[in-house]
Amino acid sequence: MSVNTINQNKLRQSFNDFDEIWVFGYGSLIYKVDFPFIEKAPASIKGWQRRFWQGSHDHRGTPKQPGRVVTLIHSALDECSGMAYKVTQDVFEHLDYREKNGYLRYEIDIYFKGLKHDNIKNADYKKGLVYIAHEDNAAFLGYAPEHEIAQQIHCSSGPSGQNRDYVFQLAEALRALGDNDEHVVCIDRILKQLNQSV
Ligand code: SIN
Prior knowledge:
The protein is α+β, with helices and mostly antiparallel strands. It has a single domain (6-197), classed as Gamma-glutamyl cyclotransferase-like (Hypothetical upf0131 protein ytfp), CATH 3.10.490.10. Helices cover 28% and strands 34% of the residues. The chain has helices at residues 6-10, 28-31, 91-98, 146-154, 163-176, 182-196, and strands at 20-25, 39-56, 67-88, 104-112, 125-132, 157-158, 161-162. Strands 1-3-2-4-5 form a 5-stranded mixed beta barrel. The chain is globular. It starts with 5 loop residues before the first helix and ends with a helix. 42% of the residues are buried. The site of succinic acid (SIN) has 9 residues, from helix 2 and strand 3.
């Protein structure tokens, strides 16, 4: 089932105290950057793992045949890598719309891989925001074996295109970041096999 989180997100954080803030992307926000940003940097967050456990009824699937996209699941010993963007507060209008199917904005510590960016040279992490679709949202699909997830993704598409392209682009972007996320790598591999067999 789809759910619209735009109004909930508007009420979540006050942007009164700052003009600019970092937002951490771990899924399509890594490779589809359709918003203005001031600077970007490879980064990670601690205590989370990326999983294809969120349904997509509006982008990579339909209400009748939802696709699967990534969300974050608590996992104390894990670290999830991605890309952080420093943005102005007006960008959240667009991001809230884009992430409206179950994702809420959360404050999080974003750890930077290098200290080459001027404004982060005095700290290796910054407070920022991340979009997470928790298991209590109506579009959450949850665990399934990776071959079943791949099969579902293989058969799904929506207004933003084929669900499998979401996976291929994410896997490619993670490779470019030097991240060997086993879950993504496994689903990417199964999907490529499925693609070859049609
Ligand atoms: C993200 O990329 O950070 C959130 C999930 C997505 O839009 O794929």
